[in-house]
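Cross-posting from the modeling subforum.

Setting up a comparison between two proteins and wanted a second pair of eyes on the formatting. Protein 1 (sequence, then structure tokens):
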Amino acid sequence: MATTAEEDLKEATRLKRSWKKSNIVTSVLLASLVIFLFHILVSPFYFSLNGSLAKEVMSSKLHAELNASNITFLPLKDIRFAKTAMDGNTWFMSSVNDTYDPNYAEYLFFPSENYEGKLLCINTSTGVDGTKNSYALAWPEALPDSAILLKGLSFVSYTYYDFYNLWHGVSALAPFVGWSMRKGCLKPKRWILFAKGSLQTATGAWLRQLMVANFGQVPIRRFGKRNGVQVPYCFEQALVMRHDVGKMSRERRWDVFQEIRCKARSFCGIKPGKKMKDLSGSGAPLIRFTLLMRRGSRSFKDPQAVSEIFRKECEKFDGCVMKVAQSEDLSFCQQVKVLTHTDILASPHGAQMTNMIFMDRNSTVMEFFPKGWRELAGAGQYAFHWLAEQSGMNHPDAWWEKLDKKHCPHPENDHECWNFYKNGQLGHNETFFVEWARTVLNQVRLRKQQLDNVHNISSCSC
């Protein structure tokens, strides 16, 4: 028994020593592993690993902390592209490439595979120069310190101009309508608006009504401070548009403006119904001619005389009815109603012409320019030719009051001369107006007869 006890003691001693050796080996291995992991984390090699391998190497919490600390915010407005902001590379979020689906406008959507599943984060304040505002992309689990996450879908719109000009406003709205139409009529939780990189917290009344008509009472977001300090805001989902209709195909543009038109009419409770024939019994199609006037700059010097010229020509055509409207006196819905019941819009160049989008497709536009515009205005004078093409209208010609000789203070300086003529009033040319009105009325009558007087309004897509 003593021998057995002695052998048991020896065996126990051997096992204890073996256990101690095993513990020492295990401790050395664990220490080596810790040192190995530490070297990986502090080594530049770590940052070349892909996302999945990095997450396997270290805990998700440490991974998030390291990524959050390495987020770089870049200027929203990149002044390197200031001279080419309207073509080629945009200066708004310049480091991020657009997604382009054939026939649709270019866009950015976060998160998506194109941007590695990252969220868009913006650090900005109202009215601050865009070069002082900034943006970054961040993993959802590694947002910047103090960041506020805004849930749901945000529409982020950038325009090179502003959201008070009707033409630029509707051009900025259109791509969002197009995107929503093909995404099951998705609506945003908020609007984020930027003009030249600076945050905008309001729009013109006309555009705001059009936004509500298409997407409902969606707020325009302001960015507040936390304890007096500006903090970044990140978006659970963000759709960014920065090229207006951009590369959208002509047919797609027509569909988008048809939707904008339809939603505006529905919002205003306007039901166009079928077009009526001439009540005189002649059987001629009804032609509705609207002379949309404006006051102040680029208004007619003698609006009564101009009205009489077109009224007399209208009376010579069976089925022609004429209406004279003052754009400044009309509410948004009144403008929608007047243009809904218009086949021919005649108006001086100006913001009120944006209302052409509420006419039926294939309607006609007649535009008038004061002296100096054709010679000095540049490409911008064709803005409503472009809008007519985008919305499916006919804008075959315009009238430019002839400038025989420059009477500006410094005729050798085109820029100063342009400022002199830019907001001038219009005269009129009765001979030209009579012939022009007769030609347009004949064209519209023929087109309406060929279309068999069918009204082209269908139900809204959304």
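Protein 2 (same layout):
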Amino acid sequence: MYMHMKADPTLWDIISSCGLTLFACTWTAIHPNIPGVNHGMVRITFYRLCLMIMALFAPEIMFTWAVSQFFLAQRAAKVCNDTFGWTLTHGFFACMGGFVLYADGEPKFTLKPDLLLDLVSKGSVEMPTITEAEIKDRSKGDGISKSVAILQLVWFIIQLITRHAQGLPVTLLEIDTLGVAALACIAYGFWWKKPKDIFGCKSVSNAV
């Protein structure tokens, strides 16, 4: 976290502080969906960079995506909680492409929550068994890493408040940074239970 504060910051101080805050609150906040089975590292990296650009220049889109995915995951978890013991983490895992139908040892297509439940109710497939702990073990994010972005944003806000209290000007770059970072952290809140950077799905086979 950037822990530097000056009463009269230089241009480099402002740029570096804004840059670090944007990086912490976008790159670490982004929770991409699970890549396809046949997606290579180049495609995955390009996808992640596109999300980064979206978070920087159109943060409201990322915010809308996080909110909509939260409610979809919540609905899936509620429907499957009594019968299959799903939590919100299970709901997110299903919404982000965590279940893939396999036939003859080959992946066919991703099973979103509604399609998975429909196939299970028809007896076409069996509900895959995976615990919340197993999903979290696959995730690359934890409470500590998720707190870094929020702490950086808080420190950035303290800097701005201190300068304003001293009668010093706040630049437009800092105001824009504050807006983008704040939306990213709010989106982070909706994604708090979503697994981060998972590269493997749970296979689902036809019922015997």
